[in-house]
Each structure stands twice: as structure tokens, then as C-alpha cells.
Amino acid sequence: MSVLQALDLRRRSASTVPPPPAGKAAAVEVAKLIDVSKCIGCKACQAACLEWNDLQQPIGVTDGTYNNPTDLTPTSFTVMRFAEHEHGDELEWLIRKDGCMHCDDPGCLKACPAPGAIVQYTNGIVDFISENCIGCAYCVKGCPFNIPRISKVDHKAYKCTLCSDRVVVGQAPACAKACPTQAIYFGTKADMTAHAAKRIIDLKSRGYGNAGLYDPPGVGGTHVMYVLHHADKPSLYSGLPDNPRISPMVGLWKGMLKPISLAAIAFAGVFGLLHYVAKGPNRVTEHDEEQAAELEERKGA
Amino acid sequence: MTVEAKPVSRYTTAARINHWITAVSLILLALSGLALFHPSLFFLTGLFGGGQLTRALHPWIGVVLAVSFLGLFIRFFSLNFWKREDTIWMKNLGKVINNEEEGLPELGKYNAGQKLVFWGQSILILLLFCSGIVLWDTYFADITTIDQKRLAAVAHALCAIAAILIWIVHVYAAIWVKGTLRAMTRGSVTGGWAWKHHRKWFRQEVGKP
Amino acid sequence: MAVTRRQFMRVSAAGIAASTVGALGFGDAGEALAAGVRPFKLERATETRNACPYCAVACGVLIYSMADGTAKDAKPKVVHIEGDPDHPVNRGTLCSRGAASLGYVHSANRLKYPMHRKPGSDKFERVTWDFALDRIARLMKEDRDKNFVARNRDGVTVNRWLSTGFFGGSSLSNEAGYLTYKFVRSTGILAFEDQARI
Amino acid sequence: MTNSWNDIKNTDLVLIMGGNAAEAHPCGFKWVTEAKANNGAKLIVVDPRFTRSAAVADVYAPIRPGTDIAFLSGVMRYLLANGKIHREYAKAYTNATYLVKEGFKFEDGLFAGYDEARKNYVDRSTWEYQFDDQGMVKVDDTLQDRNCVLNLLKVHVERYTPEMVERIAGTPKAKFLQICEMIASTSTPDRTMTSMYALGWTQHTTGAQNIRSMAMIQLLLGNMGMPGGGVNALRGHSNVQGITDLALLSTSTPGYLVLPTDREATYDDYMKSRRFKPLRPGQTSFWQNYEKFFVSQQKSLFGKAATKDNNWAYDYLPKFDVSYDVLKMVDMMAAGQMNGLFCQGLNILMASPNKAKVATGLAKLKWMVVIDPLETETARFWENHGEYNNVDPKAIQTEVIQLPASTYAEEEGSATNSSRVIMWHWKAVDGPGESKSDMEIMSALHLRLKALYAKDGGAFPEPIVDTAWDYKKPENPDPAEVLKDINGYALEDIPDPADPSKVLLAAGKLLPTFAMMRDDGKTSGGMWIYTGVYTEAGNMSMRRDASDPTGLGIHPNWGFSWPANRRVLYNRASADPDGKPWSQRKKYLEWNGQRWAGGDVPDYGPTIAPDKNVGPFIMNQEGTARLFARAAMPDGPFPEHYEPMDAYIANPLHPKVTVNPVVRVFAADAKSFGTPDKFPIVATSYRLAEHFHYWTKNVHDNAVLQPEMFVEMGERLARAKGIKDGDWVEISSQRGAIKAKACVTKRIRPIMVDGSPCDVVGLPIHFGFIGLTRKSQPVNTLTPSVGDASVNTPEYKAFLVDVKKTTPPAAQPATV
């Protein structure tokens, strides 16, 4: 196709050029809001995602839960996670759509060594550009939410694209479009935050005193947010991280360690050079040779 | 005309081949590893046929290195035990660096610096191998947790940098101390070199039938 | 809702701005400031308004079809199905059945040809429509002529045929349903049911 | 549905009981979510399992499968005892004030007139009102007479105390009372409750009475005909409403007319019982028009061959002696009484209870024709699939012809959703291979049969030869032409009854409304309730104006809602007897002095003034709704709790009459019911959000989302049986046994029945031995072949089983 659709970038993995100045492309930030309190776990989002993205997820087996597939895979960008939570005599079935959170400060992008394999558009979407992906799985280590999966077929990383191909033409992501109860909402981040506020008021009126918005500051906020009835305990929802942030290990690895290491190598090289210039080579003298010959003669004799 | 001492055999052909396999794989590992370590060195993946191939080859080269280095280790570990003279040598490292090693105790086949290189690389390669396995997602993705992988990534990077630094010392020493390189190319050193740097070893070698 | 819609931006334009040389002299020129996203796959597709075939909410769907450009006598194929946003009930949404219904249209288990299984056989054999339809008409007539009940024991005209039954589908269109009704009722079949009861 | 999907947004309280809308109808459930988010509505879910509907409910209560009438009668008792009824509504719009005959009684589980030998109510004469000399029902507006319906009802439900509800249904008393209180809150004119039910109510031997119970509650609360009210059947297939309307049913003809029975030897006999004279002064009794609808229908079916002289081809219709419903058909097949069978998009091997019986029946057929877009278990019932379908093909002599049908994407036409809205869909592509549309297949079969009879003659060829198939392309009619045939048109000029010199509608013109239908053969029309769908103004089912001027979710210009484009049935009842809305908040229709005005088409004479005292339930002879059903229900004028046929306990209310006393049990099935000593666990079958019946197991993505059969069980039962998640379990009933993976869950808790815990297991119905999902033995291997006393819907929702840990079936992975 001659027409290439493109989105402006805010960040680009393993890039040696600085991002364009803020304001150059003052795109509106988008966000997907997942209202867990409205979610009926019907998996329409999963089906729509599989269909739109032409994913061929193999047919598995059941493990005695409603989680199918049981985990994210390179061909399942989103899965529903079902958690049965008992408090007192009451039961809650907490159902959460899991998938890429599109962090504002994406750990995957930070970890990625392949230039342009992970990009963040100015609208906030974090996308994997497959042709640049080298399959190193550093993104897996970078991600605080355990999202990217590496394909055993083409050895590339895959995850939710927030349907960047739909968003670029003004369509909502396939999951949000499909969601029967509009538990998945899509729009500008500002609108989604405002919508969430209304939902939280409704939930509080129904006795969920700790209802709130999950937009974790540890990763700079996310472009996929949750309305939770128990925002005080995100981990109730099949292990949603209570306070996600890019691991300090990854911070060290992809931060300080890089310049320090190169500097150390450079220093070692320069030190050698200077030493050689200053002190010169360590040569065997003729006297040494004579001493050696003498010894050989003595022993040999 | 002074008397020329006969060359002294230092490394067998097998040992030299073993060394060079190790050397080449280490260099390739450093190049491919650095390519994936720092974006400004990503261009080095071009040497390996691109990012995907670099990612795929690096761990296999690592396996070659590990096996090869194991050979070296078995060959040389007994010669690398620490001796009293090594401590004295280390205390006089300044003199050594200033090309003033006269008056230091006579040394066996390896000086303290070489021994440190040996042990350093032995430990680092072991660590690199283990952390490398953890990071080798193609085959071993499921045996560790992501947190363990993160730790492994940092450890792998740190060890690799340390190994590269040691390698620089090792190479520089070979360049700086003239007459060293031929030990690994031709397998022998001159008698004078042996007298000067490893006199105790030289005395033993000369004494052999 | 405002979303960036810059679908026709060209890569080369982005390339101009990116020119920094890499750290060790190898220029990584052309680091784009924009990245290509997957092309929107419905651009050339035909949109048809239809209704989901499954449950009785009967959600409005849009069926996108497209001819495969490579084949000479290519017939359009369905490439995507999503909810019809104009439909007052589903408002563009679909459940996991409807959202996956493309896989129904293209199911590996779709029937393509009339098949015939002879008594005692362990397989279906492909037959022509003519064979199948003639055979069915004959079998019907044979059974009907033999077992038609014109009068009951009390002599009342009942005109019924009880030895053949008909299960009709509840996903037929009303028009197909009415033709089915006409066809079946005219024969006197009383054992005539659909999914309404089960 | 009496109301519509969109109308649910107007409600204040949703009761999902006998259904699981979030899973079975997610896009319809959207309107529950809307009501909750924007109307402050609360959601109650009553279900044996904590379902995905329960996951978003405000209140969930457990109930033992098959005890809904006990629960609902308990609710009625609460409402009546606490005065929480909409008294004015009940008095004006129901038969609450009507007097019932003196001899009517209910004792020890039986109503008056039961014949023990014939297992039936042979004398239902006391299930009737008292009439005056004019033939009008006697009423007591003071509600003092002990024989008035409301007082009889009070007495009848008095036994259903909260304690009794807890004993029978296992719903904890506190929960039950909490729900009663919430329901009672909608007895005020400004609040409504909507009831959403599906097969969880219908698939019981007391199915029709389950729904009646809810209808009675809604009537007591004044929620019928109200926005956000009603009794709403969610329904199954995309056009099950349309196909039911069109009467692909054994005893019906299109538009809820009824086939003649053996007792109606002549046309006059038939019409005599269908004149439906009003039972109260001034009532409409709309069924008085029956003959107009019937004659028009006969003209559509048989064209010129239907004449006044041959009583509109009355004898062309078969007469029925008994109902030949699904269960009866299977019973006949299994008894070797059937030779031929068509399965058009219906997978009977999976769909009818007691798979072994169905398989036996299919094997006794001489021939079977399967018309389907997909491979089905039925088409391949003769094929050996190891332990999933262990048959010997050689021993099965049934000839099978399988015809490939097209799907919705490959044909155009109209379908009717459960809101009764008829909507057109357009063709996108051709079907695969040689597949043909059902219209083409039906036409081909009809035309071939017709040709054979025209040529060779045979048994009574007339109805076949004379069937009107005069479409422009008879071998593949244009759907629009068929819809016109259903809608109807004038065969001759129709004169104005007021002024016979004027022509109301010229010959050949489409009928604008069923009021235009005539009983003199001047009109043709396949189904009166659809008249108006295709008029001279065009195909109304194609209308796509989604606007909603009133904001009440009426969408009057989207498609066409039968009857007469009416969106909420009985909507006259939304206004009080004086024609004023019961409350401004729930304003829907009102009398503006000249006519009934509002956003919807009145379900009423549009210009009948309130002072005429015409009741809002115009389809009834009384003009009012029936709290007391007269003789319309075979198992009693009031609902009564009876245990399922696989009875878990003796009925605590009347141990001598444990199960529904008038249930039809075939001789062949007499020993097929389970008892709790051998099968101590209650099972219920259900549908999953990820699958639709037995189709989507052929769809890859749905197979991904739910790949394999499982059985849901509570932790207590699993512990007792040593079963863990993912273990293989054998589930057995009196009818057979299947294997399934265990899904151990907190969502099913033992239900305390009569003081001791009752374990419940749940079985999804979707999995079989054909499809992309893992092979499984169908669940109907377990279910009993018995149906509802009124309409014979099989009892899939409550039966007895036992479970035990077992080994994996062959060719299945041993572990996950």
C-alpha cells in the first residue's frame, strides 16, 4: 500500500536522538477506562481483539477456571482474569481485563535495546513496531505489569497496541467498541478521568467506600485506567500491582549502568594508552638474554 | 655478539587453540553484548547480520565461550594458586607498572596480575553463564521469575563490563610487555623474557630433560 | 472526542528532522519522529448492514467484505464484523459470540456440498443438489402416501401426516420461516417444532 | 418481552431470576448497566450459582434449582401481607375483584377437579368466575368477598412464609426479606421493577407457572404496561421470536392462532369456540377478530383454493389430537413410529433431553434430512466418536441427507428480536461452495413435491398442489415479496363499512394495518400481527431512524415492532383509569381529551375515552389481567410449588403431591427419574457467555475462550469427593453419565434445604463431539425427558446427579 499511516512520536526505544520538543505536536492524550464494576466478564473484548488483530490463538484446555486462555500470549493481547473474593459471608467475583496499561513512562520502552522497536506516540499509546523488534525480551523485564509476550514463531514481542490502527482513523479500540456494558470506555485521558469520577460517586453510593481510579503515579500514570470498587487493594483483582513502578534493577540497568560502563571501558583503554606513552614498553634487555643463556648453558651442561 | 638463549616452550598447540577460541568468542560476545547494551552501539548488530541474529547468536557464542574457557580453566587452574611471592609482587605493583620489576621475588609461570586475570575471568564467566541462561528466553523463559530475570540482567551487564575491563588489562599487558604475544602465537617465549618475568618457571623449564 | 488523525503523513518528511550521528560515528540517520501503524484494514471494504445470528437481542452488525485482489475471478469475502453503532439496542457493541462471528462465517465446519449417507455406511458421500432434492421429495411422498391419516377413528377429517417430523431453525429469517411453514403445513405434518420450546 | 431492551433503562429495579442476562444476552444487559449508572437502579440476582450477572448485582441470593414458585409466592405473600401492592391498579386492571365459583378449592397440593387415574384435572368447571344473568362476571369492588380473586390468592400464598421459602428454596430468610422489601418499593406509582428471565424459568415442569408468578407480582405492583416494568423473556435465537410468531410449532398457526383439533370437525365448530365474547361490560376482547385473521391467513396459504364454499380450505389444515412437541416427537421416534425427519438448523441430538433416547429414535428413522450451515452431532449421530458417541455405523440403517445452508451474512431478510422489533438485514457475500439459502431449499423441496403430486397424485394432494407459491421467482423468492405476503394485501377493493360506496383500500394494495383484514376473502395476509410491516409506504423493517423523541427508549421509527409498531405492550395501563399517568416520573401515555397521546402506539383503541371503562388488557375477554388464570393453565389457576421430577425432597407443603400432578410422563420414561438416595446432588444446566448453544463450538475464537466441558461445583462438595480444579469428574444421572473437568468455585455454596445442606453442580450445555472445542459427551445425556405441564419445555434446569473423581477420557490430555 502506498499510504502509510503514521502517528507522531513522543518516545522511541534505544533512540540516540532527543524527542521532539513538547508542544510541537500537541496531540491530545487518549486513554482507555476499564470500569471493573460494570464488567460482566463476557470476553467480548477478547474476541474483538482476536478478530481485529487477526490473531490465531491456539485452542487450549480448561484448567477449571473461567480464565481462558489462562494467560496473555503473543496471540492474546488481552485476557479476563476472574478472582473470587470472600469477605465475611458476602462473595465478590472480581473480573479484570488484563492487558497493556500503556504507561506514560513505559518500562518496556526503557528496557528495549532495539532502536524504534517500541515507540510511544504523542497521544500516549505505547506500540511495538515489529519490524524493529529483535526478540530479546528486555521489554518483559522492563514491564511492571508483566504484559509483553515473545512469540515462539517469529521471536518478536507482542502486546496490545491500543488498536493504534483504529485510533489513527478516529475509531475506538476494538475491545472498547465491542464491550456490551461499556465497561471499557475510550476517549481523551481528561474525559476518561472525569467519567471515572462520576462512576466513583455512584459506586460510593452503593457502599463501596474505597472506590477509586487506578492511574498509578509510579509509572507516570497510564493510558489504560481502571475504576476499581476496592481501589485501596488493587491486588485483589488477580494481582494488579498495588504500586507499580519500573523495577529499580531495570532503572539501574538502563540508567546509570550504561554510561558508567562505557566510561569505564573508555577509561581502561585511555589508561593503557597513556601508560604506554608515559612508561613505554616493557622490553627484555640484552642482559636478560645473556643471563638466560648462561643458565641454559649451566643446566644443559 | 652476545649469546642468544634458546626459545622456551610456554604453550602447547592445543592450549593455544583453546585460548584463541576463547578469545574470539569473548570478543564476539563483547561486541554483540555491547550492541544490545547501549543504543549507540546497536550498529554493531550489523556485524552479526542484524538485531534478530545478534540476539539469537549471542547466547550460543556464550556457550562456546563457557566450554572453551572450561578447557583453559582445567589446563591452568593448578598453576594459578596464590603464592607468597604473589603477595609481595602485588605490594610492589607500582614498581611493575613503572617498568621497575627488578628485585622482586622470582615468579613461577604466572605473576599475580595474570593470576588475578585468570580467577577474575573464571568467576565472571561462571556468573555470565548463569545469568545468561536466565536471560535466554528462547529456551529458559519459564524457569525463572521476572524479578530474577531483572536481577540477572543487571548482573550480566555488570559482569560483562568487568570481564571486558579485565580483558583490556589482559590485552594491554600482552602489548606492553614485549615478547609476550609470541607465547600465544608461536607457543614459545625467548629465554630472556622468561628470565626476566618468570624466572622460577624458567629455572624449572631449563632443568627439564 | 479528539484523537490525532494524521493518517497520510509521509515518512520522508519525518526523516528530515532526524539527523544526529550516532556515538561512534555510525550515523543512525532517519530516526523517524513518527512511526507507521498497521494500515486500517477496512479502507477498501464494503460495508453491509446485517444482524447478529445468535441470541434474540439480534444486535445490528456491520459486515465488511472485500475481494482478494490477487485472484482473477475473486469473489468478495467477509473480512471483519463489528457492531452497528446506529442500532438502538446494541449501539455498536457485541458480545464474545458476536465479536467472533467472522469465525462462524468462515468456520472450518461449514457445509459446502450436499452429502449423502447410505444406510449402514460409515461415511458421507458428496452428491448433487438434484440428487438430494429428488431423493428427499421421493422419500417424503412415499412415506406420506403410505401413512397419511385422512380421518380419525371417529370418522372426523383430520388430514394429518404423523410419520414424518420437521424441526425448524429459529435463526431463519421471517421470510424463510414463512416458506418453511407453508411447505411443512401443506403436507399435513403435525410434528413440527423449532427451538422456541427447547 | 412485554417491554423492550431499550426500555430497561427506565427501570428502578431489575430482578434477574430464571435467567442470566449478563452471560446469555450481554448486549441487552447493557440496558441494565445503563439503568444502574443513570437511573440509580438496583440489580437483584437470584440464581443457584453466583453468575456473571451476580458479579455486578447489588444483591445476590441463592436459590435451589426448581423452587422459584416458592420464592415468588413468598414475595406475593409479603406484598399482600404488608399492603405493598398498587391497590388502585390491581383493582382496576386485574381480576382481583372478580368472584370465583364456590366449588373452587385447593387442598393437599391439588386444585378442584383432579382425577387420580387420569393424572389430570378432568373437571375444571370450578376454575371459573361467577357470572350474572347477562353472562358478565360478578365482582366485589370492596374486596370483601372471600371468593374474590385477591382473597383467594391471599389464602393460597399464606403458606409461603419466609421460613417456608427458606425451607424449600434455601434462600436465607434475611436475604429473602431484603429482596422482598426492595421489590415492594416498586409498588408506588413512581417506581417500577423489570423482570428479566429466560430458560431458568421455562425449563421446569412448572415453567409456565414460574412466569405467571412473576406476572402476578408485576400486576400486584402495578408494573405491567409501565416504562421500566414488564415481564421480559430474553429469548434464545436471533429470530426465535419471529419463528414462534410464524408458528413453526406443532399446534399453532402464524400469529398465535391455533390449529383445529379433532373435536372441531367443522369450520363452524372451530370458530364457535373462538368468538371470545366480552366478560365485562364494554370490553374490546380483541380476539373477536379471530376469523378475519384466520381467513386472511388461509388466503395467503392457499390462495384461490381457499373459498367461502370450502370454508376457506379448513380441511387443508391438519387437526391435532395431542401436542406433537419435541418431547413427543422424540418419544415417537424412539418407539419406531416415525420414518422421516427434517432437522433444519436444529441439532436435536444435543437439544432434546435424554440423549440416549434421541439417538435410539434417530437410529429407528428410515431417513433424515439435515439442513444446516454447520456440521452437527445430529447429522453424524451414526458416526463413531469413541466414548463420546459410541455407536456402530453398520447397525444404523437411517439414510441421511445433509444439505448446506447459507448463514445470515449470505442472505437478506427480516428477523424479529425479543423486543418484537422486526428488522431487515442485507446480504454481504455468497455462501461457500454450493450452499443455498433456506428459502431456496424450502422452495426446491416444495416445488418438487408439488410436481410429484400434480403428476402422480397420491394421498390428499390438494393442500400441497394448491399452496400459494405464486412468487415472481418461485424457485428462489425475493424475501421482500414474501414479507409482503406475510403482511397481506387486498385481493379485491375493500369497501368502507360505514359507506359501502367508498373504497378503503384498492385491490392489490398492501394492508396498512390488521384492522383492514376481512373475513370474507377480500384480504390475504399470512400473519396478522406483522401487518403494517410492509405497506404502500415501503418496507418498515428497513427503517433505520434511531431517534428517540421522548427519551424513553421507544425508537418508534427503527424497524417495525409488532403489533402495530407498539413498543410496550399493555401500555394503556401506564395511565390510571381516568387516563392520567400514574405518576409524572413514569409518564408514558395519557388521554389528551381526544385520543391517547405519547411516544408509543397505544395498546388500545386510540380514541376510546377513559370513561368507556375499557380495560387495558384487550386481548382478554375480561379486559383485565388474570391473577386467577381460570382454566387456561392445565396445572391450576394459581401457581403452586412442585418439586422437579428428579425430586430432591418430598414437597414440604404437601408430601403426598410432590411433583406437578399433571405432568405428562411417557410410558417409556416412567423409570427414568432419579432419586436422592442414588443421586444426592442437584444439577442445573446453563449457557456460558462465550458460547451460543451448539454453534460456536465450531468458531475458533469462541473455542479459544471456552475450550472444554467443565462442571462447576462448590468447595464443600469438592472437598468431600477429593476433587480439585481441573480434575476429571464423572457426572451420572438416572439417564446416563458424562465426564467433565472440575471447576471448583466459591460461587456455588451448598444451599440449606429443610435444614441440611444441598450441594448443587452446574453444567454448561455447549460441548459435544463435533466442533473445534475439545470433544465431550453432551450434557443432555443426563437430563430427564419430561416437560412443563403447560407447554412441554424440557426440565433441563433441575435434575439429580452424583459426581465422582474419575480418569480422563481417551484422547484427552491428562493434565493441563
Task: Walk me through the structure.
The complex is a heterotetramer of chains A (301), B (209), C (198) and D (816). With 209 residues, chain B is mainly alpha-helical. Chain B has helices spanning 13-37, 51-76, 84-91, 93-97, 112-135, 137-140, 146-176, 181-185, 191-197, 199-207, and strands at residues 8-9, 188-189. Chain B is built from ten helices and two strands, in the order βααααααααβαα. Chain B has a two-stranded antiparallel ribbon. The longest helix of chain B is centred in the last third of the chain and has 31 residues, at 146-176. Chain C has a domain at 46-105: Phosphorylase Kinase, domain 1 (2-Layer Sandwich). Among the domains of chain D are: 241-312 and 479-540, no CATH class; 326-464, Rossmann fold; 667-805, Barwin-like endoglucanases (Beta Barrel). Chain D has 20 helices and 33 strands. Chain D has a six-stranded mixed barrel with strand order 26-32-27-29-28-33. Chain D has a five-stranded parallel beta sheet with strand order 3-2-1-8-9, sandwiched between helices. Chains in contact: A-B, A-C, A-D, B-C, C-D. At the C-D interface, strand 2, strand 3, strand 4, helix 2 and strand 5 of C face helix 2, helix 10, helix 13, strand 12 and strand 13 of D. Strand 5 of chain C pairs antiparallel with strand 14 of chain D.
- What fraction of the residues of chain B are assigned to beta strands by DSSP? under 5%
Separate helix tally of chain B:
10
Structural class of chain A: alpha+beta
Note poorly predicted spans of chain A.
Answer: none
- CATH architecture annotation of the largest domain in chain A: 2-Layer Sandwich
CATH H-level superfamily title of the domain at 12-83 and 104-176 in chain B: Transmembrane di-heme cytochromes, Chain C
Percentage of residues assigned to helices of chain A: 25-40%
Largest inter-chain contact set: C-D, 121 and 167 residues
Major sheet size, sense and barrel closure of chain A: 4 strands, mixed
Can you list the strand order of the major beta sheet of chain B?
Answer: 1-2
**What is the name of the CATH class of the domain at 12-83 and 104-176 in chain B?**
Mainly Alpha
In the CATH hierarchy, the architecture of the domain at 12-83 and 104-176 in chain B is: Up-down Bundle
Give the helix proportion of chain B (percent range).
55-70%
Note the run of SSEs of chain B as H and E: EHHHHHHHHEHH
